[in-house]
């Protein structure tokens, strides 16, 4: 398979990060399909063949909840959007908990109740007005039932935020900030529950704009500068997360935890959906896993990991819409991997050698003759900010310090990034400033990989 070098690198990185500390790696287990395996088979596969330790389902499905009994996999269950108004009533909430939580929670690790999904985006005024009352009613019902270890929250699209181009200036949209979010954030703080968000760089992908495409996919790019913090962001996911953080911090709730309830990338689509490829899905989800499990955090939330749920577990053949809607899965219904970025245990346990070029003669990545020094300096900044990249050779006293100019230094680090990421052509794009060459640019004591 042509994706093997990048795959091996990402598998190795995820394996290393996951061995250093606890960090929930979850999946959204959707069921809009007529060819999925039995829940008991799914539970066995997840627990024995993958590193997945959390699942989120979009309903209350007894067979699925029961399938994860006596495992270490946590389960998030969901209240249907249309059920929210009725469950704002204390008696109805108590009955719901009695029917959908109490029969299972002693054997299945139900960790959270998701109250609806992306309610504010629906525009349904009744659902929106009853959202926080429903959250309180369910929380109180859990407490009255003697259950204190199940959180209650609700996922949001990033449409809740305005002014997010510069993450530090992001704010909750007017009209929702005081009426909905103030009481919601107060609830989350008091109950020690997280804010759940669904950040999808996929929906901002612009194939005609190289920098935006690379920015969305964690690939080399010039970055987006926040002039208020003097921080340059090199991937959209970090920027989205910091935008959420800035928005709730501005309201006085920086202490509320943030959970990534959904994110992912489709691996196939229709001819008019060029973003939907296996390579793009590997690039996004593989680098996502590295980002959320590394402990590096984001510029505004350093030194932290993020509980994250990838969308989705399976390709779902009955989802309506274009082909991409049926190709978000990590796995096919027969449990074969659409691609693997370190999720499978048997792949994760294999030692990963340093990746080699894709095929044929050895190649190197060098700057295009037309690339400006400003663009090349941005490439240096990007590469040297990446975990695992060694930029010491271009520093004073290093073997590649001379000639001491931006083009020479950029050439060395761009090639290092290219080689360490599998020597695949797109890893030499650098927003159109890099080109693959067949002649070794090494000089003197400066040896290129």
From TrEMBL:
Membrane topology: Lipid-anchor; GPI-anchor
Signal peptide range in chain numbering: 1-24
Pfam families xrefs: Glyco_hydro_17, X8
Protein name from the UniProt record: glucan endo-1,3-beta-D-glucosidase
GO biological process annotation, one example: carbohydrate metabolic process
Residue ranges of coiled coil: none
Highest taxon of source: Eukaryota
Enzyme Commission number(s) of this protein: 3.2.1.39
Location of this chain's protein in the cell: Cell membrane
Cross-referenced PROSITE patterns: GLYCOSYL_HYDROL_F17
InterPro entries documented for this protein: GH, Glyco_hydro_17, Glyco_hydro_17_plant, X8
MF (Gene Ontology): glucan endo-1,3-beta-D-glucosidase activity
Residue intervals of the X8 domain: 363-448
